[in-house]
Specification:
Length: 271
């Protein structure tokens, strides 16, 4: 009788834990960007956040969604990608509006327009459709240009995925590229710290949040038997986070020297 009562109690508790883990998986990835978003709105200054964060996360999560069509995985992981894409688009919208409003003399650059829109130089257009100059790519003046770029990437990769969906090699490679792209988010910060021999200007609290979140995510992958690519790249992401924390410890023993360039508190992984 007692065993039956205990089983009756443990069943709902296990279900609640499962729902809580799924909810944390879906929304936990966007939590570090909430204070960043609020800070940009409050200060009307987006210089401390690299929009390349949005680019990398958009690419990674679009590829992950496409991977789902080839190999179905846990629904919370799919919803996590959808929520992350929405979050990154909101970040892009805010950063673009703030950047343009703060610099009225900024040259107008577009994803799908000619350079003749630049009223300052009055020069004939050098490119007739897409501005793929590396100096201006992902530095456009309107949020709609970013949306067009994301839709173009989604359409092209979606069409390729549709054509090769029957190839297990392609599907597995797609899944690996999705999680590997996201796993590499901390590498630019790691390299910049190494170049500067300093972690000055980097938020240690944010790195701790990454580490705890990535550790939870990796354990979730392993426990729920997610595709092997997820677990491997999750472990790699935790390794990068730990390496950054190790840099914090090592460089704290040396005087902080000023960087040779403008140091922003955010790297490609968003601080």
């Amino acid at each position: 009788m007692e065993a039956a009562g205990l089983e009756w109690l443990l069943g709902p508790m296990q279900q609640l834990v499962s729902w809580g883990a799924a909810g944390a998986m879906v929304f936990g990835g966007v939590v570090p960007y909430v204070p960043q978003y609020r800070d940009i709105r409050r200060t009307q200054n987006a210089e401390g956040f690299s929009t390349y964060v949005c680019l990398v996360l958009l690419v990674a999560n679009i590829l992950r969604i496409l991977f789902w069509f080839g190999r179905r995985f846990e629904s919370p992981l799919l919803w996590q990608s959808i929520i992350m894409i929405i979050t990154m688009l909101l970040m892009l919208k805010l950063c673009t509006e703030v950047r343009v409003s703060n610099d009225l003399n900024i040259k107008r650059r577009s994803f799908a327009a000619a350079d003749s829109k630049d009223e300052e130089i009055k020069a004939p257009p050098k490119r007739s459709y897409l501005d793929f100059d590396l100096n201006y790519f992902w530095h456009w003046s309107k949020f709609t240009d970013y949306v067009q770029c994301v839709l173009t990437f989604t359409g092209v990769t979606g069409y390729i995925t549709y054509l090769w969906l029957d190839s297990s090699l392609f599907v597995e490679t797609l899944g690996f590229l999705a999680v590997f792209t996201e796993a590499m988010l901390g590498v630019p910060q790691l390299y910049r710290n190494y170049q500067n021999r300093s972690t000055e200007g980097m938020s240690v609290k944010m790195v701790l949040m990454w580490t705890s979140g990535d550790t939870f995510k990796t354990v979730y992958f392993i426990v729920n038997q997610a595709p092997l690519q997820f677990s491997i790249c999750g472990l790699l992401q935790v390794f990068v986070d730990m390496a950054i924390l190790l840099q914090v410890y090592l460089y704290s023993s040396y005087p902080q020297k000023p960087a040779t360039h403008t140091a922003h508190p955010a790297s490609t992984k968003a601080l």
